[in-house]
Amino acid sequence: MKTTFWMKTDDNVELYVEKWHTPDRQPKAIVQIAHGMVEHIQRYHDFARYLLEQDIFVYGNDHRGHGKTGQRQGLMGYFAEADGFTKTTDDLFTITKKIQEEYPNVPIFLLGHSMGSFLARNYIQMHSDILQGVILSGTGFYPSLTTSLGKALSARLNPVEKSPLMNKLAFGAFNRKIHNPKSPFDWISRDPDVVKAYMQDRFAGYIPTARFFFDLMTGLQFIHNPKRNANIRKNLPMLFISGEADPVGNYGKGIWKTVSLYTQLGLDNVTTTLFEGARHEVLNEINKEEVYNIIRQWLLQNMTTYPPKTLSI
Prior knowledge:
Helices cover 39% and strands 16% of the residues. The chain is of the alpha/beta class. The chain has an eight-stranded mixed β-sheet with strand order 1-2-4-3-5-6-7-8, with helices on both faces.
């Protein structure tokens, strides 16, 4: 069953959270989901149901500026006035603490998709000892020059106004390798029903604010910083899943660069799966059952590899 609740952050933002669970049952593990940019947690219902059938419970929130959280904030596509990427990452940790309060001896995995994968990569720079493992879906590698230029440009714009310019720079070329695309969002999935639903979703595909892009570029700088990544525990299980036709991962090239980023630091439990022909949202692809099964197998293999630290609440 699914239940929903709200959590208040230290700076008084109310986060919308969903929990998928079976009452009176103890889960094998818990997956906490960090969704992507300009979408929301309800798009993960099919995946959550699948995990629940495996006795794996699921938590996930709408990030600041997204979904019902953004609606209650009153400004979509906006994290915060300052330190938005860090605050959004801290929100994930706040939810993790609640999970451990409710299930103190159950392994917790963090799954981040796209922007959520960037948040997850920031999270493990600070809290990798809390997690049993991390799954990075649709992530990417971004050189410092790209992020520095994006940050400088977005800093010159009105922070609370939507930025079509930054949005075009971020997404404008994502359909370029698709023959005869039917919509601006064909790059997210080969499934036309997924694309149609995305385009009809009032909480998806909108244009974020300039400050959002500034925060995103800041976050990308964080996650590529070697000193920050040195804090990640070396035996953290990591699973990379991506489509070979995903522009965010530079059609596979960015995934392997990102994998190398971590293996060169000494991380020794890194698994990578690229799906042939798949686009950005592998959890919403025409072969999603294959993707689900690979995640399930990886979770089962890594549930007992490390005793996670118990939080002091």
